[in-house]
Amino acid sequence: MTWQWEYVPDEETVAAGAPPAFIAEVEKKADELVRAAEAVHLHGPAYQGADEGAKHAFVEGGFFVYMITPRTELVSIWQITIDPIS
Asked: What is the model's pLDDT at position 84?
């Protein structure tokens, strides 16, 4: 296996209507989260602990909700929220 990130349930549902520049920031941050998770969970599939649960990541123009699942070596993005003021 190799670490990756994905939109859950899919990009069309999660990112619908978001500006491309904002999506680019989300995806850039998701790449960083994958690299960090890979460094922390060196033996991801053998991980025996509980998942850490949902977290928020803030990027230019808003934030997104994600979860790291070491056993499947996956960072899943569940929701993105655009800052209405930016």
From this structure: 86
Are the beta carbons of 26 and 19 closer than 8 angstroms?
Answer: no
The answer to whether 58 touches 23, Cβ cutoff 8 Å, is no
Q: What is the pLDDT of residue 42?
A: 80
**Residues of the chain below pLDDT 50:** none
Q: What is the pTM of this model?
A: 0.90
Q: How many CA atoms lie within 13 A of 75 on its CB side?
A: 24
Sorted by sequence, the CB contacts under 8 Å of residue 60 that are 6+ apart come out as 22, 25, 86
pLDDT for the residue numbered 1: 67
Separation in Å, CA 23 to CA 7, 26, 43, 47, 57? 11, 5, 30, 30, 13
Pair 30, 66: CB distance under 8 Å: yes
Measured CA to CA, the distance from residue 65 to residue 79 in angstroms comes to 5
